[in-house]
Fold this protein.
Amino acid sequence: MPSNNLPRARRRRGAVVAALVVAATVALAGCNSSDSGGDDGPAASGPWLDDAKAAAETAVKVPTEIAVKALGPVEPPASMTVYFVGCDQSIPGCVAQVEGVRQATEALGFDLEVCDAKSDVASFQNCMSQAVNAKPDVIVNNARPSADASEAYATAHELKIPVIGQFTAQLPDPEKGNTVEVGNVCQIEGELLGSYIVSESGGKANVAIFADTVYQCNGQRADGVKAALDKCPSCKVSVDRFSVATAQTDLPPALQAKIQSNPQLNWVVSTPGFSGVMAADAVRQAGKEDAISVGTFDGDEPTLALVRQGDIIKADVASGVYENGWTVVDAALRLKAGQTIPDNIENPTQLLMTQESAPETGTYEGADGFRDQFQALWGVS
Amino acid sequence: MSESLSSATQQAEEVPAARPAEHRAGRIGLDLLDRWAGPLLLVAMIVAFTIASPGVFLTSSNLLAVVNNQTITAVVALGLLFPLAAGVFDISIGGVLTLSVITSAWTFQQTAGSMPVPLAILITLLVGSCAGLVNALLVVRLSIDPFIVTLGSGSIFLGVSQLVANGQVVSRDIPTSFTDLGRGELFGIPNPIVLVVVLALIVFYVLEMTPLGRMIYATGFGREQSRLAGVPTNRILVLAFVISGLCASLAGLVYTSRIGTGQPDVGAQYLLPSYAAAFLGSTMIKPGRFNVPGLLVGLAILAIGINGLQLQGIPFWVISTFQGGALILAVVLTKLRKLSVRADG
């Protein structure tokens, strides 16, 4: 090749590097995050603050009664097979849902099959197909939208296999989706945490919310936190999204950038629960342990360990971590018995856990004596 | 060297024939630009982001956090340099990292936190080294393509991690004396950063200043020729895989000690940024060779780029796009470099 071609090759390389710089500059010019909220004024008061305080105070009290008690007793069949399509089993909150169902089915002597749907659509579809092929008495879908496996849902409906949605953040759709929904409480959980933050900050909260996009429940939680904070005119809030599938590498720099770019930030909320631990790590790295608190969900053990120590994570909202699974099995019994049950059983009682109110060991499993209450309804001991 | 999947090292470049003095002078200038384009890009990015985010980007707090965020990737990538320099891919690093995360957390959980921290660290490093050894034996003894071997073994290590952890997060009884290692500081510098600096110096010394390093590079540039010249290429490959596994397990220890839990699916996410940094690094400072300074600059370009863009409110998906783009850019630059060298010849 002639030597005068050499600078051309060099220029090509230079052009590629220049393109990178230009792309970065264009991106810099074009993008900005959105904040919403009030001002930084000195005083904060109003009925909204009193409401937030009242909500936060109520939310730390462990309920004494399960919600389905109002539906009356139900007689369980002699045997039953429950097929549980669980969300990503590397997420503690997802594991807890399986455990609750396992406890309840064991109490009744039922069979339980579990499939890990991980965090991708293909795995979920695979699990739902396996579930339908197994022809169980009932299928439970934990956390995924029914539309992601519409074919399997259609087959389940054809075969008259009821599908119970658990934390799917959807209302029931007996024609195409879930027959009944248990635990459509994600927005309520978010509002509880939001109210607590408003209360704790005295109406001066400056909050960054990070919510996963894979599970809609996390989006609803973010909406709930934001809704509570939007009632506070002197609070500020921003919402950023991430995917649990890439959280380990994507979330830390996003958290760090948010912390660094907002010196007034005093709360970070991250959902699901394991991302709260990552948020705490980001706060620690930034050396802002005294300035920024973290709130999260799910009542995971690593999170609660920090909550108990008052170490960065100051609040965790969970909805009867195991009670939820018992409620699912209760719904299965009622469907089998042909009972009329509400579309949405908002049973899993929510609890706000702080350093003062978190259980000394373990997590918030549910209302006081919920296992005995369920077994009394089912007539088993 | 054949350009198969298992060939990680760029082809050795022939020294061009003598050229006119004017042309040589021009080439020296272009060579300098070639070597230092990456660092210059990094400086340009720092200047741009400092202007774009005044008082936020160029602060010790932000920069320390940016570096600290990259420590796990850096440890993995530094270990990865050995197989890459020796001309083979190690795709199993994500699996080894995960296995190490679970091993370290599990040893504490199984002993109700009574396992001495040094022993837990030793066990974890041994597990990582053994994982590397398994890869090496399959590649060397059975002459299986390293890419295929490590792709499969990485998946097996992930599966074993899930098995050990029973598919759950291992988080009980991890002692604070262990988490203090990941969260603590030495003279105001976070311990993970100190670790990366020390490790980088060691890797730099081994690769650049010892006969072993020269043999590793020689193996990468031409395994058969090196073997005929007396280089123990098989032993070099074994060593490269073991060091890669050792560093991946070290990264796992950093993760567990910092986060305080053992996630059974954590490792795979570090594969792309590690490779992106290593390949980007091979285009600068010592172009055509996987080298420590280049890797660190490559890592810094990725980290600073992501941080700077995120300070402007760029959404999360930019990170994967940025890392993937950097990897492709590195390969394109390498290709262009080869073309220019051939044109020169």
In short: Residues 48 and 192 of chain A are 13 Å apart (CA to CA). Chain A touches chain B through 62 residues (CB under 8 Å). The longest helix of chain A spans residues 6-30.
